[in-house]
Design brief:
Helices cover about 75% and strands about 0% of the residues. α1 crosses α4 and α4 runs antiparallel to α6. By secondary structure, the chain is mainly α.
């Protein structure tokens, strides 16, 4: 009986080309000089936006500022193309990173016709480039992640805070509307007055004015200051600190993943698959012993047949 060796198909040239492209682009993007250059370009772009706010300077050096802005846009375009090329062997990994999507949207939107014609939108998009400094400043990135994760808790805090202010505004309108219409003449004025008192600014004057109306006003202001300025504010601080801890854990987890990746930035399964393909190629390139057909291994003769011959 004969047994045919089965070999896996060799990788397509396009696949090898993507891996080479990804390796070359990754060599550039992972260099410290690349990150420093992009970071300096972002700061330079921010400085250009500041210079354009001076009408005299902007009018005198309009061509120079425009050329500098085009250079920044060209540099950002090359940067995003290099980052895309660095993930050519695994394109989905590029789009799974929210920062990559943000960078791509900011850079690509500058080439849209209706955006380039609208000066206001274009300036806002240029201002969004400044936020890209978070990619190169880990602590700033942690703060932005913490702010994003604290939004649900902040929304709940705002609802509870608005409810407290409304209840106290109604009580203030009932008790002080006739004596102090300037601050409690309506629920809107009362709510604005109490909202400003949340920072405890002007609380002394408000208490003195309230004592001239009724001695019980001290209970009103004391309970409001205790609830709104101490309890609720501390709850908000707790929400932010909890989100900050979660952001630190997310950042540490993201930093551990590249450390566990291989030299080509692939995970363990992809490395094993690459090694298997390499072994299959080596096995397929080995010469076949004997003069039989290609891919057919000759059977071994029994030891007794040789001695008998």
């Amino acid at each position: 009986m004969t047994s045919a060796t089965t070999t896996n198909p060799k990788p397509k040239p396009a696949g090898r080309g993507r891996m080479k492209l990804a390796a070359r682009c990754r060599l550039v993007t992972e260099a410290p000089a690349f990150g420093i250059a992009v970071f300096c370009a972002i700061l330079f772009n921010a400085a250009l936006m500041g210079l354009e706010t001076y009408s005299g300077l902007a009018g005198q050096y309009r061509l120079v500022l425009g050329a500098a802005e085009n250079c920044c846009l060209a540099l950002f375009t090359v940067e995003i193309l290099l980052r895309i090329g660095a993930q050519a062997d695994q394109p989905k990994a590029f789009f799974r990173d929210p920062w990559n999507l943000f960078d791509l949207a900011v850079v690509a939107s500058a080439f849209l016709p209706f955006v380039r014609e609208n000066t206001t939108i274009l300036r806002l998009l240029r201002l969004a480039r400044v936020l890209r400094t978070a990619r190169f400043l880990p602590h700033l990135r942690i703060l932005l992640i913490a702010v994003g994760r604290s939004l649900p808790g902040t929304a709940s805090f705002l609802f509870v805070g608005a409810l407290v202010v409304y209840v106290y505004a109604m009580i203030g309108w009932v008790c002080f509307a006739e004596a102090d219409p300037e601050h409690y003449g309506s629920v809107g004025r009362a709510g604005l007055t109490l909202f400003l008192l949340t920072t405890l600014d002007g609380l002394t004057d408000a208490v003195r004015a309230g004592l001239q109306i009724s001695r019980l006003s001290i209970v009103f202001y004391a309970s409001y200051a205790l609830l709104a300025s101490f309890v609720l504010v501390n709850v908000l601080i707790g929400v932010v600190l909890n989100s900050l801890d979660e952001a630190r854990e997310i950042e540490e987890e993201n930093n551990r993943v590249p450390a566990q990746a291989g030299p080509e930035g692939t995970d363990l399964k992809e490395r094993i698959a690459t090694a298997r393909r390499a072994l299959d190629e080596i096995e397929a390139s080995l010469p076949v012993p004997g003069a039989g057909a290609v891919g057919v291994r000759p059977e071994r003769e029994p030891a007794g047949s040789r001695s008998g011959a």
